[in-house]
């Protein structure tokens, strides 16, 4: 048996980014489902068009996230096999440029990051308020979309660290503006209404009426007003 090679820090970083992106991709399903149902029930033409545009943005976002995940898997494979822009050689053993070069993990990483940024921008467009129906610019499934946006921020933070590690940039905050925009989008569109505490049971109400004459009189008066 061969010993397993330890996972490098870069591999761990890529893995965390992929986990974030897959979670974001999966979370879009509930929102897409809710919007699709809303479109079917909407009769106003312009309102329905706005909802349809949101559905299209969610659909395209999911496709882009899948592509980004596949690109990051390619980055991992290129690194694992030591492939990094190798070129053919001429008769003297020098680099021969007329033929294709091997893949570059840095280039594919860059493409994946641009895709994630594009996905974030699509979501911002999906929930941009319109003049006629500004109230539509809110998440139908706020808990799921809150997780989607949080995972996208996590992925972008990880991509920024990867950019620094492989020399694509010297600044650690490469994607900070996009991360901030996603945070603002979450605040604006993902208001989660807390669940209301359940009221007293019928048995509890009956026990209270029997135990306290004042409650009994108040209940009787309320019933009289309701039936009057």
Describe the structure.
With 228 residues, the protein is an all-alpha fold. The chain has two domains: 9-87 and 98-191, Four Helix Bundle (Hemerythrin (Met), subunit A); 200-228, no CATH class. Helices cover 68% and strands 2% of the residues. A hairpin with a 5-residue loop joins strand 1 and strand 2. Helix 2 packs antiparallel against helix 3 and helix 3 packs antiparallel against helix 4. It is elongated, with a radius of gyration of 27 Å. The N and C termini lie far apart (87 Å).
**In the CATH scheme, what's the topology name of the largest domain?**
Four Helix Bundle (Hemerythrin (Met), subunit A)
Strand content is under 5%
Measured as a percent range, the helix fraction is 55-70%
Instruction: Profile the largest sheet.
Output: 2 strands, antiparallel
Strand order of the largest sheet: 1-2
CA-atom Rg in angstroms = 27 Å
Question: Which structural traits does this protein have?
Answer:
single chain; 228 residues; mainly alpha; Four Helix Bundle (Hemerythrin (Met), subunit A); two-stranded antiparallel sheet; 2% strand
Q: What is the strand and helix layout of this fold?
A:
Blueprint lengths: L8 H33 L3 H36 L7 E2 L5 E2 L8 H22 L15 H24 L10 H14 L12 H10 L1 H15 L1
Antiparallel strand pairs: 1-2
Helix pairs in contact: 1-2, 1-4, 2-3, 3-4, 3-5, 4-5, 6-7
Give the gist of this structure.
With 228 residues, the protein is mostly helical.
